[in-house]
């Protein structure tokens, strides 16, 4: 395959994900809601992250990005010129939550601060925009920080979408030193149109048309890849990507998308399952224990691939990003053993294991608070001490930013 682009590499220099402090097994959630247990296997999920009332999209973003920022020298931090958050969980119609993130990360004031929204596609839109800025050469040596951050605002009304909902953030530092993912510049395909497959019309709840969303995802996968193939010479879906990483609302949908693509390439029978196990399954380990991280989902899956132990040599990854409403992109890049080593430094798997296991009743106790997380109010107090019994069960808890409430409409935070 051949893609256009400059010789200088650009892409993801560092990647980290933060998936909260608590977790609930999918089986317990199914049992608590009285859902059909035979449908649990379709999700291909073992558990999901649960936000606590002291967590919100700002704390998730900061806690994901902080290790990346602290690893930089002062000179390197000063070269961050663009900071973008992508979210469906904005805290204001005007003020971007990026401004809070910028403050608590202690970044320099010579930055562009932006918040973007396009459902689960937003982070990829930001990544591609940042790479374009860096590759333009107008500010040699510059860096960009992109953070996908969200909270879940679903309850029993979401039915089978509730067990698949995730919580957390994925942070990516982008530069001309792409130690995690070197983007194939010029190798991309887009497909977008208007549809109401899911939406968040209120800060308190999501709506979803499950069937429409399923078909939109599969339609966009097919057509975004077709656009990619129209731009990239002699590409073969079955041959030219050593690994595949896709937006993962739940792993079962990724499996269905892979099967559809393979069949359209003329592959049938056991070869499809063998290919799925080899090229796709390593990317689904973390999503299967976190849930849908919205626009961070595809980057959680990338971290999963790199932490799985299968990347030991230079390999091309095909990535698919989808956001309801809808917009999508198929793109690609190169990873290698340094990519795996760079992500391993973050200890993502260890932190996921350290999350406190909670019961269904404990989940219900925090749920109503979480549903109010984004609702604008003049004053609100969140007392961390109320949740100390749960926090005490978090293993090896680092210092984190916590949400403490709202004062005169201004959100308040503290390190804990």
Number of domains: 1
Q: Using the coordinates shown, work out and report the CATH topology.
A: Peroxisomal Thiolase, Chain A, domain 1
Strand arrangement across the biggest beta sheet: 5-4-6-7-1-8-13-12-11
Considering DSSP H and I runs of 4 or more, what fraction of the residues is helical?
Answer: 25-40%
Determine the mean pLDDT: 96
Residue stretches low in confidence (pLDDT < 50, at least 5 long) are: none
What is the architecture at the second tier of CATH?
Answer: 3-Layer(aba) Sandwich
Distance between the termini: 50 Å
Number of contiguous helices: 15
CATH class: Alpha Beta
Structural class: alpha+beta
The oligomeric state is single chain
Domain Hydroxymethylglutaryl-coenzyme A synthase N-terminal: 84-175
GO molecular function, one term: hydroxymethylglutaryl-CoA synthase activity
Keywords: Transferase
Family: Belongs to the thiolase-like superfamily. HMG-CoA synthase family.
Brief account:
It comes from Streptomyces atroolivaceus. This protein has 15 helices and 17 strands.
Describe this structure in words.
Keywords: Transferase. InterPro entries: HMG_CoA_synt_C_dom, HMG_CoA_synth_N, Thiolase-like. Residues 84-175 form the Hydroxymethylglutaryl-coenzyme A synthase N-terminal domain. Residues 274-370 form the Hydroxymethylglutaryl-coenzyme A synthase C-terminal domain. The chain is of the alpha+beta class. The chain has one domain: Peroxisomal Thiolase, Chain A, domain 1 (3-Layer(aba) Sandwich). 35% of the residues lie in helices and 25% in strands. The protein is built from 15 helices and 17 strands. It has helices at residues 26-33, 40-43, 57-70, 74-77, 98-105, 122-135, 210-231, 251-264, 270-280, 287-290, 297-307, 337-344, 348-354, 360-371, 388-391, and strands at 11-18, 22-25, 47-50, 80-86, 112-116, 143-150, 168-175, 181-192, 198-202, 205-208, 243-246, 315-323, 327-335, 356-357, 380-381, 401-407, 410-415. The strands form four sheets. A nine-stranded mixed β-sheet has the order 5-4-6-7-1-8-13-12-11, with helices on both faces. A three-stranded mixed β-sheet has the order 3-2-14. The chain has a three-stranded antiparallel β-sheet with strand order 15-16-17, covered by helices on one side. The chain starts with 10 loop residues before the first strand and ends with a strand. The mean pLDDT is 96.
